[in-house]
Specification:
This protein is an alpha/beta fold. It has 15 helices and 14 strands. An 8-stranded mixed sheet has the order 5-4-3-2-1-6-8-7, with helices on both faces. Strands 11-10-9-12-14-13 form a 6-stranded mixed sheet, sandwiched between helices.
Length: 407
């Protein structure tokens, strides 16, 4: 079975074509600047030179058409026709409360995703464009929605509710949803595959640390708490996002700086976090370089960043009454040996011991980094959200075929 994975942003489209017999990536790439005459199309096929073109691509449907032409091209393609694609998996940012699992696209599913646009106004509309575009180009091929929020729908009520008037939840569904669910699900399952341990017996803390970052408590295979909230702004300090702050800061700053709601929202999402504290960068590589050179702002930003990660890990140990494994993933989690070292240095009370030689390499290679007598496993597991989407898509298509056959 061949599965195409599509991730549509407001002006971009990432794609990967998988052969699910061996989970091999046959082709992948990205289309950027959709809507412009200078759109960039990139196509990669293992063993071949990367193709990069600049042309006019005005809509997501046009971008998808270009992708389909590339993967079926007589010279550089990997399949002979679109009909070889068994299904398309679409990454959807927000599934609200309606979806605790991935689903095959139907009219009702489309309507539900539309209703959740107010919860993800920048992402869900773009995600829908990918579904509509592919349906127009290849209507007979099933589409599957894989939601970034679905994995966290197992959180207990007392973990996802906010202590605000309950009428706001009843009317507007204001609650914690969490994000990066596909990543947290993938790395926890991969931990089980690597170690042979049954997830139903393990307490895991998954740290997806990149420009956007979240930590999830996974108890016996299910998400029971996560650091991002109703939006991705809550939780850890991130590249440009503030993470947790006193809510009263918002009206205080609006009055003092004469800001409107859009300006303060932009401040918290785009001008805070590492870049706001350090004054130099949102990139952890530049922050750590600043720490080494003695830059005061970079050092403060780094120390705050590490403190917040340790704080969440510690709280999730309390939530689950223990932890068996801590997983680092995401751009920073996979590549920064310094971040991993400093986070783990504050967790020795758990009986956690990392091996410096295993931790030091910066290559994002899947491996354990704990010492043999550590009471907590510590792993680096590069995330693969696209493969998780492909697996869910394959599973649902097979289940649907089985039901259809029975009927």
């Amino acid at each position: 079975m061949k599965v195409l994975v599509v991730n549509c942003g407001s002006s971009s489209l990432k794609y990967q074509l998988f052969n699910m017999e061996n989970e091999e990536v046959l082709a992948k790439g990205i289309v950027e600047r959709i809507g412009m005459d200078t759109a960039i199309f990139q196509y990669e096929r293992p063993g071949f030179e990367t193709v990069k073109e600049v042309s006019s691509i005005l809509e997501h449907k046009d971008a998808l058409n270009k992708v389909l032409k590339a993967i079926t091209d007589e010279k550089m393609g990997v399949i002979s026709s679109i009909s070889e694609i068994a299904a398309v998996g679409h990454r959807i940012a927000h599934g609200g409360e309606q979806f605790a699992d991935s689903v095959i696209v139907t009219k009702d599913v489309i309507e539900a995703v539309r209703k959740n646009i107010e919860l993800a106004p920048l992402h869900n509309p773009a995600n829908l464009k990918g579904i509509f575009g592919f349906s127009e180009l290849a209507g007979d091929i099933p589409n599957v929605c894989v939601f970034d929020t679905a994995f966290h729908q197992t959180m207990p009520t007392e973990h996802y509710m906010y202590a605000i008037p309950r009428a706001l939840y009843n009317k507007h569904k204001i609650r914690r949803y969490g994000f990066h669910g596909t990543s947290h699900k993938y790395v926890s399952q991969r931990y089980s595959e690597i170690t042979g341990e049954d997830l139903k017996t393990k307490k895991i803390i998954s740290c997806h640390i990149g420009n956007g970052a979240s930590i999830t408590a996974i108890e016996y295979g299910k998400s029971v708490d996560t650091s991002m909230g109703m939006t991705p702004l809550e939780g850890l300090i991130m590249g440009t996002r503030s993470g947790d702050i006193d809510p009263a800061i918002v009206p205080f700053v609006m009055v003092k700086e004469d800001l409107n709601v859009h300006e303060v929202n932009s401040m918290l999402n785009k001008h805070s976090g590492l870049v706001g504290i350090s004054g130099i960068s949102a990139d952890m590589r530049e922050i750590t370089d600043g720490v080494v050179s003695g830059h005061e702002g970079a050092t403060l930003a780094y120390n705050m960043y590490i403190h917040r990660i340790k704080k969440y890990i510690g709280s999730y140990c309390a939530v689950m009454n223990g932890v068996d494994a801590i997983i680092f993933t995401g751009g920073v989690g996979e590549n920064s040996d310094l971040v991993r070292k400093d986070v783990c240095a504050g967790l020795t009370f758990l009986g956690l011991k990392i091996d410096p030689s295993l931790n030091e390499t910066r290559k994002p290679k899947e491996r354990s980094i704990h010492e043999g007598d550590s009471k907590v496993d510590v792993y680096i597991i590069p995330t693969n959200e696209e493969l998780m989407i492909a697996r869910d898509t394959q599973r649902l298509v097979k289940e649907n075929e089985a039901v259809t056959t029975l009927v």
